[in-house]
């Protein structure tokens, strides 16, 4: 995968990316676990992951992922607890990219940190579906108005050339008919305007979108991140606001107990509508058959 047009994370003056990541992780260990002398298992796991990140050349990706999560949280945009490699990574946990402690649940981080298989960590964030556009705008302010754009789904300008009327002054291909199918998750970020790398068109609302899909953009050297729209996060935000208004209570979701008997009774009876990601009819039937309980 080319990284020719990847944006770079610039650490504070006098620090390399690796040293700044180490500093952030050290601060995160104290924040997550407390005390000035970290546990042995925390130190060993953190060193293991950071060494493999450095060997694989993935420090930039992790810092960019941290920056995007930080931007979302600082702008009050609800995001999920972590995706893909993140819940199994101690680095992601101490950075605040995920709120899942991999040591507590015995999760191993081998997706990108195996010595025989270096795989770049995917930059991905679950985001409330009604705030996804807000996060894209935040990223545009940070990385450049013309350097951030949603992508198309397998939409090639060459194969559809007869459909286009002209190339506009803004670098947008203007079709005579049929708007492109926009990828609901993938967003491209580049150094410099995307229109210098890939032809651009407009979606049904007239907003710019790339004419290349995720795979083509990665080949061209752009960074493609996943901003996954999530309905449950939007519902949670609405419910928490309602409770705050009507009862004057502030509920912290991450502080809720994971072994609540009433919750497991509900799940065991298949009452999981709106419980992401086990809300399908098949999952409901499986829950009724399995009768899951919290391990003691």
Topology:
Blueprint: H1 17-33, H2 40-56, H3 59-74, H4 90-95, E1 124-128, H5 132-143, E2 148-152, E3 164-167, E4 173-175, E5 182-189, E6 200-202, E7 208-210, H6 214-220, E8 223-230, H7 231-247, H8 261-268, H9 281-290
Parallel strand pairs: 1-8
Antiparallel strand pairs: 2-5, 3-4, 5-8, 6-7
Question: What would you say this structure looks like, in words?
Answer:
The chain is of the alpha+beta class and 296 residues long. The protein has 3 domains: 17-121, no CATH class; 130-231, no CATH class; 257-296, no CATH class. Helices cover 37% and strands 13% of the residues. It contains 9 helices and 8 strands. The protein has helices at residues 17-33, 40-56, 59-74, 90-95, 132-143, 214-220, 231-247, 261-268, 281-290; strands spanning 124-128, 148-152, 164-167, 173-175, 182-189, 200-202, 208-210, 223-230. Strands 1-8-5-2 form a 4-stranded mixed β-sheet. A two-stranded antiparallel ribbon has the order 3-4. Helix 1 (17-33) packs antiparallel against helix 2 (40-56). The longest helix is centred in the N-terminal third of the chain and has 17 residues, at 17-33. The N and C termini lie far apart (44 Å). The model is unreliable at 156-165 (pLDDT under 50).
Helix content: 25-40%
Name the beta content range. Answer: 5-15%
Task: Give the termini separation.
Answer: 44 Å
How would you describe the shape? Answer: globular
Number of domains: 3
Number of helical runs? Answer: 9
What is the overall pLDDT average? 85
What's the helix-strand series?
HHHHEHEEEEEEHEHHH
Radius of gyration: 22 Å
**Spans of at least 5 consecutive residues with low confidence:** 156-165
Largest sheet: 4 strands, mixed
Structural class: alpha+beta
Strand segment tally: 8
What spatial order of strands do you see in the largest sheet?
1-8-5-2
